[in-house]
Amino acid sequence: MTNVVILNSQLHRTLRVQAGASARFGDDRRFVQVIANEFPLLAIHYPVFFAKDADTGAFYCGAMLGFDEGENLFLEEGRPQSAYRPLNLQRGPFYTAGNELAVDLDSPRMDGEAGEALFTPAGEPTAYLESIKAAMRELRDGLERTKIFIDTLMTLKLIEPVNIKVGFDDGTKRDVVGLYTISQDALRGLPDADVLELFRRGYLHLIYLMIASLKQVPVLAQKKNRRILAQSESLGLARL
Amino acid sequence: MVRPIHNIVIVGGGTAGWLTAGVIAARHQGRMKTGFTVTLVESPSIGIIGVGEGTWPTMRATLEKIGVSETDFFRECDSAFKQGAKFARWTTGAADDAYYHPLMLPQGFTQLNLAPHWLGGGGGDRTFCDAVCPQGALCDDGLAPKMITTPEYQAVANYAYHLDAGKFAPFLQKHCTQKLGVRHVLADVESVIQAENGDIASIRTKQAGEIPGDLFVDCSGFSALLLGKTLGVGFKDCSDVLFCDTALAVQVPYERASDPIASHTISTAQSAGWIWDIGLPTRRGTGYVYSSRHSSEDAAHEELARYVGPRIKELSVRKIPIRSGHRELFWKNNCVAVGLAAGFLEPLEASAIVLVELSAKLISEQMPANREVMDIVAARFNEVTGYRWGRIIDFLKLHYVLTKRTDSRFWIDNVDPASVPDRLKNLLHLWKYRSPWFFDEFDRLEEVFPAASYQYVLYGMGFRTEVEPEDNEGTQSMAARLISENATLTRQLRAKLPKNRDLLQKIFDHGLQPI
Q1: Are A161 and B515 inside 8 Å of each other by CB?
Q2: Which of A203, B110, B178, B296 is deepest in the core (most CB within 10 A)?
């Protein structure tokens, strides 16, 4: 359940938020929406794809964190996450409501005394709250800019569906569907004027970051495979 | 001297005219810059009939080829999904008598014929449709055949459309003239000028003078201005097979904006014909197609009123004559007829628009390079199109000959062997001992109704094919697997597909993605 209210320095003066990455706080997601500004930070860790919003069918950009429902292979429970954490996970229990910042009081992150304070005893925003505000601003503007980027690619027919098939050492296979990426054939076939336009708008850079990020798929698969092996080894030990 | 075919003139601006213009112009887009032209001449004073609010799944490929966006088509033509037809009260006339003719093929249809296995009891107590295909259940649940994330023109369950015919022609017109370079001339044809060999040289119009052409497409509707009136091609009446000759049509508003929209055509048999019921997002289109030899207009009106309810008093009922039959030839000299000018049948299986699509496709793909080869193309066109009309007449008649109803003269007369075409009679005889499947009977590349359609109607109406259990033995386990796969698929689709109205609303709000 959620209980989202506008953040208020009087009412929420003593509120604390557990900001770290953890499955129990809701970071257990295999795909998370991202914005184009994040691509340089994301592409060295995550495969970045387009996907469709289940409710509207509209395309958005997202980072792939795992293969199975609820699987985030970047979580290192008990330790801070080493890979860049997408803004949509960084923002934790915060939302925007118009120009105001809102917070979900029922979020598991709000449970107890631990965590980051939002306000100083004098009622001033803490550095943590300021960082959240900055992240929310970046997200809001970034979503709009990312939508324009996607619309441009759609107009140029540069997006195509991609089917990811991987097999793991335990003999299981995954067939990840519903993802889309840059069509490299269509990109090669673009008229010069369109290429120049993409370059000037900074989109060519984003396009190549997305293409490069595809190389993270096998890396992600290896990550999962190591977990599978570790798990079966520990099971093996338990049987001994 | 070889006379190239460069200038195509289409006479008539209804659904047939604009669809044909779109299909030809899209196919020959590349030649447009070298002088190939498509001109559509439409009378500003003659209205369009606008019959045909149901299509076949072929319309998806047709629209995609013409290059229109499916989202625009849904939004601008008040279109909705159609997953087949439900035939109520055709077999016994009882209140619970109904079967589906869905658009999905039976599970594994290309590998194995499930009909003998179902007849042998392999489907349990399920109807044939439910045993072999999920679509009947999807229709029962009022579900859409796809999701908002499914790309344009792609399906989760095969589908066609219901549409507002009055909006479809203007929609196509806009696309044809703005995107495909079709020339639109608003003018009344005053006379037709023929060459010595009988070819049409030009048409003389009141507002736009003389319009010459190399190939003329007659889409002038019932009047068949070029092929019938000018070239004198006769009309082959088939009211001895199909008795319905009149329709009373009425558009029925939904009671509440949130009322469910059926994702299939509902066809309910009456005492002298049947009532169609087609769900659009904005209204239902209904109408009683009946035989005036078996019912008076007043009696028919009364039956329609019973179906629609007391609201019919506030609605306007339109009477449309139906002359069942088709031209003896469809292409003569340099003139080919498409749409009502070629012929018309009762709209039982939505065959009107599909015949337009098939004819337009054939003309565009077989477009004669010059006048010298046109007669060869014409002969082939006549052969194929004549075959198609025959198969459609057979298939429509099939719905009538299998009835067990004896409650009115109409149904009794319909099973009179004298009214059944020989070919259909032979097939029915054959099917007593072997169920239709694809290689044995339906051998044409673009067969209008596949063998699966015959199976759905035959076994939906209680027809029995004798089955030797020994004959099924070799494929028993495969049949069991296919039937159980269908049950699984049905469960999955019922869980994931949205309600028909909900998806149509989403398409209106957000649109479908092209990929």
Answers
A1: yes
A2: A203
